């Protein structure tokens, strides 16, 4: 379900609940108003009935014949008043009680009419008048009392229902909001994790159930982008190798030229001096040819190993041996550029778990950059050792070149950022940084303009099953 659909569904659900509560409150309020109107009418009736009872006393105790007329007039007024608001009264007390009230009034009226039309005093009629008046008064008072109680009960129940309904809506709103936000934040954390990984040069796919909402689509897009970046990184790695290989080609050609020239001279000398050579001299000449041939084979093998694209081949390795092997690749470049090498390789360093070819590529890139940054007859220093916490093997490549400006130093590991202008691709250090990160290592740089630059590589030490 889409996030928008979830939010709309939650809002509609809350609106329906609020509408239901509003309808309930409106109904109860109307009922309370109806009952309050009846209570007002009942209060007027009770006051009128009280006057009627007083008139009864005047008639029975003081022999006031006009009191009967007063009673009759009051009763007719009450009947008209009740008929005028019969709808409100029925709504408040119900049809049954309303009929009972009308019947009591009618009964009282009939008894009064009989009393009015009778000749002289009649004790039976007087008793019926008293009984009808008392019954009407008691019924009216009891109904008024009950209605007041019902009004209080309705108000109390409505208050409780509204309070609990508000609490329920609040809990549901918080619950639904929390659920929606939890799902959104869960997907956002996955996206953040992948984005951070990509920014560090680690490309991998999120292996998790992808939701069907917009965030799921974003996650799928990021997974696709991560895969594409990984594919392109491999292409960049290979192109960088070829670029580095091109830089080394001139020096390697010279490196190959030396043994080939030696072989050529040995062959010429051997042909010219053959008749005068002893058997031991002839064997010595052939051994020299073999040595020069092995030298060529070793150079070619190193170049092929360096240039050939391979899947990561992680294994235990001695970092000092890798550094020495790398220096063989760049030896002639260093010689041509008149760069001296100062090695300070600590003996007995723990093994590391690495892809030797990748680490060689990083070292070649750093050495090449250092050579290009230095003037002839400068010194390039390579130092190995342990980190302060003894968890990493440390490699430092230090040049005495022109240094890097503090303004651009924070960006040198960014893809396509180069300090060489049009002569640089801006990929070498970025690729190297990604390689070290993929080895769970660290790569740092410090530089001072006019003094030089030092790149530090930290590779985790191989510990047992780790």
Topology:
Layout lengths: L2 H60 L3 H19 L1 H8 L1 H23 L5 H77 L14 H60 L5 H29 L6 E4 L1 H18 L3 E5 L7 E4 H18 L5 E8 L5 E8 L28 H11 L3 E7 L3 E9 L6
Parallel strand pairs: 2-4
Antiparallel strand pairs: 1-3, 4-5, 5-7, 6-7
Summarize the structure.
By secondary structure, the protein is α+β, with helices and mostly antiparallel strands.
Task: Name its key features.
two-stranded antiparallel sheet, 466 residues, five-stranded mixed sheet, alpha+beta, 69% helix, Helix Hairpins
Task: Give a description of the structure.
It is a single chain. By secondary structure, the chain is α+β, with helices and mostly antiparallel strands. The chain has three domains: about 180 residues; about 80 residues, Helix Hairpins, CATH 1.10.287; about 150 residues, Heat Shock Protein 90 (2-Layer Sandwich). Helices cover about 70% and strands about 10% of the residues. It has ten helices and seven strands. The strands form two sheets. The protein has a five-stranded mixed β-sheet, covered by helices on one side. Strands 1-3 form a two-stranded antiparallel sheet. A hairpin with a 5-residue loop joins strand 4 and strand 5. Helix 1 packs across helix 3, helix 4 packs antiparallel against helix 5 and helix 6 packs antiparallel against helix 7. The protein is rod-shaped, with a radius of gyration of 53 Å. About 20% of the residues are buried. About 0% of the residues have low confidence.
């Amino acid at each position: 379900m889409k996030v928008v659909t979830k939010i709309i569904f939650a809002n509609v659900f809350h609106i329906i609940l609020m509408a239901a509560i509003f309808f309930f409150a409106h109904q109860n309020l109307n009922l309370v108003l109806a009952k309050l109107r009846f209570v007002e009418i009942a209060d007027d009736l009770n006051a009128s009935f009280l006057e009627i009872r007083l008139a009864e006393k005047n008639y029975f105790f003081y022999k006031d014949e006009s009191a009967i007329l007063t009673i009759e007039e009051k009763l007719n007024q009450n009947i008209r008043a009740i008929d005028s608001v019969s709808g409100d009264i029925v709504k408040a007390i119900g049809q049954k009680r309303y009929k009972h009230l009308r019947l009591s009034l009618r009964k009282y009226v009939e008894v009064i009419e009989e009393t009015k039309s009778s000749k002289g005093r009649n004790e039976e009629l007087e008793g019926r008048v008293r009984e009808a008046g008392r019954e009407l008064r008691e019924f009216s008072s009891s109904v008024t009392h009950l209605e007041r109680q019902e009004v209080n009960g309705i108000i109390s129940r409505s208050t409780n229902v509204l309070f609990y309904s508000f609490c329920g809506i609040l809990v549901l709103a918080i619950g639904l909001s929390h659920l929606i936000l939890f799902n959104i934040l869960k997907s956002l954390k996955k996206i953040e994790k992948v984005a951070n990984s990509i920014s560090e040069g680690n490309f991998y796919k999120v292996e998790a159930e992808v939701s069907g909402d917009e965030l799921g689509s974003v996650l799928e897009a990021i997974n696709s982008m991560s895969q594409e970046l990984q594919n392109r990184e491999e292409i960049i790695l290979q192109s960088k190798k070829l670029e580095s290989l091109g830089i080394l080609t001139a020096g390697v050609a010279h490196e190959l030229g030396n043994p080939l020239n030696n072989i050529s001279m040995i062959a010429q000398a051997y042909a010219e001096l053959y008749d005068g050579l002893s058997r031991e001299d002839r064997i010595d000449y052939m051994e020299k040819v073999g040595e020069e041939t092995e030298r060529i084979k070793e150079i070619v093998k190193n170049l092929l190993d360096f240039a050939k694209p391979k899947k990561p081949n992680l294994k235990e390795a001695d970092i000092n041996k890798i550094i020495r092997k790398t220096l063989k690749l760049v030896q002639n470049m260093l010689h041509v550029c008149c760069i001296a090498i100062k090695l300070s390789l600590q003996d007995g360093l723990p093994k590391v778990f690495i892809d030797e070819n990748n680490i060689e590529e990083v070292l070649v890139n750093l050495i090449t950059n250092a050579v290009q940054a230095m003037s002839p007859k400068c010194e390039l220093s390579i130092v190995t050792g342990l980190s302060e916490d003894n968890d990493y093997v440390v490699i430092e490549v230090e040049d005495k070149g022109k240094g890097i400006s503090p303004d651009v130093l924070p960006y040198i590991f960014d893809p396509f950022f180069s300090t060489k202008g049009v002569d640089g691709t801006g990929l070498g250090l970025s690729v190297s940084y990604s390689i070290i990160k993929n080895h769970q290592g660290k790569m740092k740089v410090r530089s001072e303009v006019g003094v030089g630059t030092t790149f530090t590589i930290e590779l985790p030490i191989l510990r047992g099953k780790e």
